[in-house]
Hints:
The complex is a heterodimer.
Chain A: H1 4-34, H2 39-53, H3 56-66, H4 72-75, H5 89-115, H6 118-125, H7 130-141, H8 143-158, H9 162-167, H10 178-187, H11 191-224
Chain B: H1 2-13, E1 22-28, H2 32-46, E2 49-55, H3 57-65, E3 72-74, H4 79-87, E4 96-101, E5 103-107, E6 127-130, H5 136-147, H6 151-154, E7 158-161, H7 164-172, E8 178-182, H8 183-186, E9 193-196, E10 205-211, H9 219-228, H10 231-239
Helix pairs in contact in B: 1-2, 2-10
Amino acid sequence: xxxxxxxxxxxxxxxxxxxxxxxxxxxxxxxxxxxxxxxxxxxxxxxxxxxxxxxxxxxxxxxxxxxxxxxxxxxxxxxxxxxxxxxxxxxxxxxxxxxxxxxxxxxxxxxxxxxxxxxxxxxxxxxxxxxxxxxxxxxxxxxxxxxxxxxxxxxxxxxxxxxxxxxxxxxxxxxxxxxxxxxxxxxxxxxxxxxxxxxxxxxxxxxxxxxxxxxxxxxxxxxxx
Amino acid sequence: xxxxxxxxxxxxxxxxxxxxxxxxxxxxxxxxxxxxxxxxxxxxxxxxxxxxxxxxxxxxxxxxxxxxxxxxxxxxxxxxxxxxxxxxxxxxxxxxxxxxxxxxxxxxxxxxxxxxxxxxxxxxxxxxxxxxxxxxxxxxxxxxxxxxxxxxxxxxxxxxxxxxxxxxxxxxxxxxxxxxxxxxxxxxxxxxxxxxxxxxxxxxxxxxxxxxxxxxxxxxxxxxxxxxxxxxxxxxxxxxxxxxx
Lengths: 225, 245
């Protein structure tokens, strides 16, 4: 199996970059969603949750077209010499961000909501500016939500298949990730290689889920103490 | 092509003549369009219906090995049916070449691909091919590039589709500027630009059909394979840019 190292590196890079981008992007969104209710927020919540119910091929298809050279979105980038974002690492990051968005927004939003209004009222009485209250009250108290979100996004991106299949083009060292490699190995009847990678992913997924449970328990206990 | 598909649907939905069977056929992606047309003609002639699955040859091979219920396999190569036969998944002595595939360099942009394929040395970001590890048209594409002495240089620009169908999707959406696809996919396409790769550039793509074990006792499956060799079917196959014996 040549280039297996490359494939694993691309997979980890993709998951890491996606995780960082998503936590940053999801935080303000989750904050806004947690600070009220109403039709607009419900609609945004539904849009964010779409990737959970839609087949990845739907997202992959729209992305293939939207990031293609005939798309008005790409017309903006063409002066910079970028024809398409398909088949590029950046394109995969965009796809992964959309695909894993609910897995980042939901835990962070839940964590923000769990804080309740009281700590912020206290912060306000202590004359903390809203921005200050966000930094010194909301973020520390929601750390479990952030950890959960980061772990879920990382794991979900590693386990992504359909979107990458539609827009990746399986370029070794650039857009070929582990899940795609497994698919190819099965098609090539290289079951030994497929077993190796599939088994590795199983262990990885189990470790992530176990870590989530342990974190949940630890932080829960710390909060009670 | 669209009308043939619609017709197939209409026929599939209407009740066939008495004692009509159903054949489950696994069709290599490149043969999708002719297979649809053949199914329509076959149903009209025999009353048997055809349930078709389209996909990459390598994928079907693994599925058949693992007990997929296909009765007939129209492969994109000679290798997989041969292996299926020796492994006992195919019925001995039922293999034959139903078409010789042709490779074409195609772009959705008119005037982009020239008559000699010199565009390959020119400027572009992405060239789509089918995955050479599982799709024979992918192998032919790589052979062509090597024959032209361009493979090393072009390799970083290659994007691989799961099957020749996905390679075609990449090119037709413009996501890749050009790509190696099956002539059958673009033979009825008026737009774009193309270079039909000379036969001497790649190992002949002799596409073989084989009767699989689940279809051994099904008269409809046998009838389908007989029909595939009939002048009527051969005419359809030719009209899609394949060569026949």
